[in-house]
Amino acid sequence: MTRSIREFDPCTSSRLFTIYANEAVIDLLQPYLDKLLANLTVRIVCKHSPAIEDEQYQDLQMQKVDLLIDIVPPKLKMFHFQKVAQERMVCVVRQQHPSIQQSVNRDQYFAAQHVMYRFHRDNMRVADIISNELLPQRILYSEQSSILSMLSLISKSNAIGIAPCTFSKSYAELFKLDLLELPFETRPIELFSIWPSKHVQDKSCIWLRQTIETLMEQAYSA
């Protein structure tokens, strides 16, 4: 019996699935996964996506990983994808900031020092991805490859930053942060689940995709 038509039961299977995703997605998704898997024998492990885009797709094609969650849909026809969530970005400042409270205007935003989060891919910065306009140069305070590190640093300084709203809400009270609307027009960041086209009829992979779609909807609507 071929893999594509083999039956799959998550209550009896010992299958281990592996997912690539970014820091914020894993942080939000993991509690929902833990709850779902508590009474199942199947396992799902989340790993941080490789910094190099080609590497993550190679691992997906070579079955080293079963599913990829990314902000950019694949260009190659050998992969299928589906939008599973979207996330708006917010301006993050520490509570009791000396000049920014409750809201931030354009002048305040561009006059402030910035903790910047840089995506690994193409060295992109968040503001330039989500903005509908070409933004003026910002004053760099620090550059981080971890969103959590960025939030921690903002909590200890007068620098500001941009971060995913849903993720930041989880840590706003802990780090004593205010989440404010950005003073320029933006578009949300979309999140896609991506899998090899050759597994489109695989029962186990269908279960995984549907499960992740459901949990992502729960995580990003909470």
TrEMBL record:
Pfam families the UniProt entry points to: LysR_substrate
Database matches in InterPro entries: LysR-type_TF, LysR_subst-bd
Keywords annotated in UniProt: DNA-binding, Transcription, Transcription regulation
Residues in coiled coil: none
Entry annotated with the keyword Transmembrane: no
Annotated LysR substrate-binding domain residues: 54-213
Family: Belongs to the LysR transcriptional regulatory family.
Protein name, as recorded: LysR substrate-binding domain-containing protein
Species whose genome carries this gene: Shewanella phaeophyticola
